[in-house]
Amino acid sequence: NRQVTYSKRRNGIIKKAKEISVLCDAEVSLVIFASSGKMHEYCSPSSSLIQILDKYQKQSGKKLWDAKHENLSNEIDRIKTENDSMQIELRHLKGEDITSLNHKELMVLEEALENGLSSIRDKEMEIYKMMKKNDKMLEEENQQLNFLLHQGEMNMGPREIQNGYHHHQQQQQQQDHDHYQEQPAMPFSFRVHPIHPNLLDRI
Predict the structure, then answer these.
(1) Does 87 fall in a domain?
(2) What pTM did the predictor assign?
(3) CA angle at residue 149 from 143 to 154, to 5 degrees?
């Protein structure tokens, strides 16, 4: 019941505030906080809450906020204005909303795009050169490793070479033996010497 009553009275008092603002040309600002903490407000179309609070502060002599909060509010307004300007500039760089730009502004925009494109190409070339340099370094390292490997083989003594050869031969023989063991048995057909008749033919 209290929530329904609050909703009705809130709408009624906001309606009265609008009537006073329109019919009497008065500056009205209304702020209401519900028991849930939700805020409802109304301000005259010809004014703002900040302006009305400034007037109240000057005429009543009561300080609502100090210089620190005022500077913070000004900084917020400045950042918001700067952000809006950057959003417009970004749309122009994308080729949007450029019908309102004059010839000089279009030339400035074109120059900015050309400078950006030049910077992108320079960065692309820098990355390409770095990749080529890395490839060359890898190739040189590979050649150096191959050279060291060749030198190591050349510097091996006769006994080391012989041992390595015997080890290789043993591995090869073991592989041949394993391969032979895996082969299935082949059927044999027995025939006597050509001067004797074939036993199979006789059967």
Answers:
(1) yes
(2) 0.33
(3) 125
